[in-house]
Structures are given as C-alpha cells and as structure tokens.
Amino acid sequence: MLESSKSILSKILFMSIVSFLLIGNTASAQSFKLLRYDENYEFLKDSNRNFYERLKFIPLNQDKEVYMSIGGEARYEYVDFNNEDWGRFNIGHNNFLLQRYDLHADVHLGKRIRIFAQLRSALEDGRENGARGIDEDQLNVQNLFVDVNFWQQKDKKITIRAGRQELDYGSGRLISVREGPNARLYFTGGKLMYTSSRVSIDAFAMMADTVHTGVFDNKMSKQLNLWGAYSKIIFPKAGNLDLYYLGFRRDESVFEEGIAPERRHTIGSRLWKYGGGFIYNLEAAYQFGTFGSGNINAWTGSVDIGYMFENVKFKPTINLRNDYISGDKNQGNGNLQTFNPLYPKGGYFGFSPQVGPVNLIDIHPYATMDLLPQLKMQVDVVLNWRFSTQDGVYRPSGILNLRGSDSDERYIGTAYLANFTYSVNKYISVVSGIQYFKTGAFIDDMIPNSKDGVFFNARLGFKF
Fold first, then answer.
1. Distance between the two ends of the chain, CA-based, in angstroms?
2. How far apart are CA 304 and CA 370, in angstroms?
3. What pLDDT digit, counting tens, does each position of 123-168 carry?
4. pTM, two decimal places
C-alpha cells in the first residue's frame, strides 16, 4: 500500500510529461516560476490552444471566467559525496539518488476567488547514513490555499490568502522555499497582500509543520512560529528596496550556547539591482529577543557587487561578495549573539555547502558565462572564517554542526565550485556541478585526520 502511494504521483507525472514532449516545444508568454502559484495562464483564454495549452487553460463555464490550470514537475538527481562533514563520521564515499514529483491545480472562480492545490513527493534511495530532513517526504500536501481579492483598482489590489502555502522572500537569506534540496519548505497560515506596479507588501502569520518522511503524516505545529511583514519598492532604472520585519518562535532551539526556547525578532533591509551593467545586492539585518532567560543581540551584513557584460560574447558576469554573520561572543554566559537564518535556502554559499550562514565571515568571488545560448556556467571560490571563536560551525539549515569553543582557530576552509545548467527546451533542464572543500586550520584542529570533501551532483528536471 505504501509503495503504491509513493509511486502513483511519479507515474502520473511521467505519463503527462511524455505526452507534452511528444507534441513538441510549444511556446507560451511566460516561463515557469519558482513558486508555481505565481503563474497565470489567463492570457490563453481567447487563443487557439493546442493540447498542452488546453491543459494550462481549462474553461469551466461558458464565458470562461471560471477556469483551471494544471501543471507539475519531475526531478531526478544523482549525488556523490566523498568525506561529508570532512570525514568526521568516517563514512567516506556516499552516493545516492533523489527524486521529486509534484502535481498542481489552479482554479479561478471568477476575478475574486482562487483555489490552488499541490501534491508533492520527495524520495531518497541509497544514502548510507539515511535520509536527511531535506531529502525525503514521501507524499504530502505542499500547497492548499484560497485567495480572496476583496479590493482592486487599476493596478492596485489587496488579497487575503489562507491555508498551506510556500513562502520565498528576497534573496532567500531568511525565508526561502528551499528549491535546491529535494524537499521544499511550506507553512500553514494566513497572508494579507497589497500589490501595485511599484510597491508590494505582505503581512503574514504562519505555523511551521513538523515534517515526517511518510505519506500524509506531517503535523501542524498549532502555534505561531513565523510572523511579520515584507515589502518591496521598485525605483525605475535605479533598483529595488526591500524592508522587512520577521518574528520567530521555537520552543527548543540548539546553539553552542545551549538548548532553550527562542523568541527572536529580525528587522532588515535589502537594496538590489539585477540586469545588464552594474549589479548589486546589499543586505543588513539586526536580531533581538530572548533565548531562555538570556537576551539575543545578533546581526548580519552582506555586500554583493558585480558587472554584467551583456554586449560581450558569452555575456560574462563577475561578482565579489563579502558576508559578516555574528556568532556568540561568550559561550556559557546565557546571552546569545548567534545570528539565526530562520528558514534559509540550502546552497546560499554554494550548491551543496558544508558551512551555513551562522557565525561566519566569507569572501566569495564568482563569475558566470553563457557558453551557449542554452548552456550557462558558474564558477565560485568561497573562503570561510568563523566570526567568533566562542561559537561553532553550523549547517546550511542553521543547525549546529561542529562545536567550536575548544579551538582558537578561525579559518574553516575554502570551497571551489563549478556549476553547469543546460536548458534543453522550456520543459527540460540538466544541471551538474562539482565542489571541492579544502579544510582549514579550524577543521583540522577539531577533527582528527580530517579530510577534504568532494561533492558531485547531476540533476535532470521536467516541468509543464
């Protein structure tokens, strides 16, 4: 029964995608979005639609004001890791397979009401030390929410959203859907959204579900875990400004300082501009609150500047990034200066990093190039130091990985990365990358006989 439940979604996805690929590479007016619920296929309403486009716009009444859109994804990934966590657990060579499938339906009941539902299956097979939380969630309801547009005037609109939903804001530094790992994040709660041509503001209150690896077995926390507001202001030709406040609650948080209930508040801003020519992404955030009986006082700052040579062959970009992320200053005194990245995206400092955005200083030059119109390459070098010698090294999720107060060494190590993305067509993509992590003085000090880490992955993805 369990195996049939796990495989039903993959069989439906496989049959659907094969059907779409057989009809050729049909074009449409938009690309697939990171959050699939951001797609809108109403533009197909009055067109002569082929088989694929008829699935993207299915009229449910005569005047076509009530309609449905269907979509999905299948993703297959091979992972080969040698000396994960720098040989700390003596696992050595570890290779495994990851699969992800989803199906969604987007139903519009006129101009005011919309229902979005999505099933997702994330599977892992062959990992020697078992599936991580980011690897497997055999079958779950990823999105199930209702939108109500209760006010609209020209380009301005106010919408209420209630139910289970994915969230992704800014650069994914603090709230991300976590696209890189196999199992994406989601929350259950409510959101009030205001949008116009130049300003958007979201206010939200969310519960974080407890994720189990089985079939429809995830549990709602029944307490408020994440709340706040996120705004974006567009300055034509100048850039964009994000302003945000985030509240966070966890009843049992783990830092090198200890284990205690955490109530944390984050205020921050981001100034950014992408596109041709000079590009930049500047972000700073300050955190305060309580950790057990102690106080929280943490911060982060990031500078990412570069240049895109859009009129040069291969359209190269060069960037230099520098991050400062606070760590605890006095281990054991009860107060906490460790920055909490809340719900960050995996791969923020590389596509499979071993070092997360906590207690960190990094220097990160990187470059991209379009080798072919369909083939993009990115190369990175990331040099990592501990911000504070009284705090340890944390995983990309923010979970403590290696305690550090017993060592005075700061240098964690250097990651060398190369990544290639080939877009076969709109529906099919192939991504492959390799990472070599050269251990530094801190890792060598804390792990006897530490070993450099090597990571390789190859991913095939289908979307429709």
1. 28
2. 20
3. 999 999 888 888 999 999 999 999 999 999 989 999 999 999 999 9
4. 0.91
